[in-house]
Specification:
The chain has one helix at residues 48-62, and strands spanning 23-25, 32-38, 41-45. By secondary structure, it is of the alpha+beta class. The longest helix has 15 residues, at 48-62.
Amino acid sequence: MVYCPECETDLDIEEDEVDEGEIVSCPECGSDFEVITINPIELKPVEDEDLDDDDEDEEAEDGDYS
């Protein structure tokens, strides 16, 4: 069993259901985690900066029509 590092809820993730680098979310607290290893499953919190970078890239592409 894999537990949320934030709220310790059982995430119900199996090793054969995820890949390294995949992002999983806790249904209880809403935190996002990246799968670091799958045997055993290890999770790393996804930093807000990583998500913000994607948004900025999209905005730059949308606004570059000169």
